[in-house]
Design a protein that fits this description.
Elements: E1 4-9, H1 17-30, E2 35-40, H2 42-45, H3 52-69, E3 76-80, H4 86-95, H5 100-104, H6 107-115, H7 122-137, E4 142-144, H8 150-167, E5 175-177, H9 208-216, H10 230-242, H11 244-256, H12 261-287, H13 290-318
Parallel strand pairs: 1-2, 2-3, 4-5
Helix pairs in contact: 3-12, 4-7, 4-13, 7-8, 9-12, 10-11, 10-12
Bound molecules: tryptophanyl-5'AMP (TYM).
Residues 6-10, 18-19, 22-23, 41, 44, 131, 134-135, 143, 145-146, 148-149, 152, 181-184, 192-194 line the site of tryptophanyl-5'AMP.
């Protein structure tokens, strides 16, 4: 049997370069070789303030982004988490074997608490348990995600080990599949690129003008040479992904103190747009064919439900929920 891969993205807006380089590139690299499930994790989306009236549209936008970047429904299953209710069933079972104190200590929980002090809810604390259930439901062994998700992977493995030792072997120990873009910094020059920080990201759907404007506003020094500012590091990091062959030349100019930042920025912006343009073209094709998208979603969910139910039968049996 092929190894299983699982990953998911929240429906909080369009995909940005951080999601793309940190997670989606990994998904693309794995879809040829493994049995893959790539999800829109809508239940994770609602742990922070959100708008119910736009949720369905946001979910669909992520599915269309997935298809546009080249995730191929012939090679992988596309899932919407809430449409496979076994996720929440398994999450509840797993929550009964994991200590609250470990969840309270997680850096991701602390960050969200600080970000939304008036929205500290049970779902937020429960987030890593549901995430563990997502992957374990399919017995996923590889998880292509950014480095920020490593603490959640730790929890997942702990839960899997604990379940196996308490009830018998059912789950593997999922590992993170590392990508070159596992940490993409913010365009603002501090922290990571993030949907929740305005000005920090470039969306895959941005046009050339938007990209140029955003890249031009990355803070740099007035002169080049010497210790690099955080903003300059961001530019060089993105160059590595989108214009690798030019990096050495720009770096030399930087070291010589002759670099004109605006030249580097415009070159980079054009290179990013050249990379995104075909993706945007494919996106348009899927937007114009909603029936095809509906079929892909329906097919993904039905295949995932079969796999999910298989695991749940084992879990219910091991945990004593099946009568004689
Ligand atoms: P989300 O939507 O916050 O992020 C989606 C993916 O994008 C990656 N990412 C980044 N990678 C590199 N640099 C960045 N600046 C950057 N910003 C975001 C994240 O690491 C992630 O891979 N908790 C998950 C959603 C989830 C999930 C799962 C993932 C729920 N259940 C099961 C895998 C398996 C998340 O952070 O989503």
């Amino acid at each position: 049997m092929k190894k299983r891969v699982y990953s998911g993205i929240r429906a909080t807006g369009r995909l940005h370069l951080g999601n793309y380089l940190g997670a989606v590139k990994g998904m693309l690299a794995l879809q040829d070789e493994y049995e893959c499930i790539f999800s829109v994790v809508d239940l994770h989306t609602i742990t922070v303030p959100y708008d119910p009236s736009t949720l369905q549209n946001s979910i669909r936008e992520i599915i269309i982004d997935y298809l546009a970047v080249g995730l191929d429904p012939k090679k992988c299953h596309l899932e919407i988490q809430s449409k496979v209710p076994q996720h929440t069933e398994l999450a509840y079972f797993l929550s009964t074997i994991y200590p609250v104190s470990r969840l309270e200590d997680l850096p991701t929980y602390k960050d969200k608490k600080a970000q939304y002090p008036k929205y500290v809810n049970m779902g937020l604390l429960y987030y890593p348990v549901l995430m563990a259930a997502d992957v374990l439901l399919y017995k996923g062994e590889l998880v292509p995600v950014g480095i920020d998700q490593e603490p959640h992977l730790e929890v997942m493995r702990e839960i899997a080990r604990k379940f196996n030792s308490m009830f018998g072997p059912v789950f593997p120990q999922p590992q993170r599949f590392k990508t070159e873009g596992e940490y993409i910094p913010s365009l603002l020059g501090s922290g990571k690129m993030s949907k929740s920080v305005e000005g920090s990201y470039i969306n895959l759907t941005d046009n050339s003008e938007e990209i140029r404007k955003k890249i031009r506003s990355v803070p740099t020094a007035t002169t080049s040479g010497g210790e690099m500012t955080e903003g300059t590091k961001v530019l060089f990091k993105l160059l590595e992904f989108f214009a690798k062959d030019k990096t050495a030349q720009f770096m030399k100019e930087y070291d010589d103190g002759t670099l004109q930042f605006v030249k580097l920025k415009d070159y980079l912006a054009d290179a990013i747009f050249a990379h995104l343009k075909p993706i945007q073209g494919k996106r348009q094709e899927f937007l114009e064919n909603p029936k095809l998208v509906d079929e892909i979603i329906k097919d993904g969910i039905s295949k995932c439900t079969v796999m999910a139910e298989e695991t749940m039968r084992q879990v219910r049996q091991k945990m004593g929920f099946v009568g004689k």
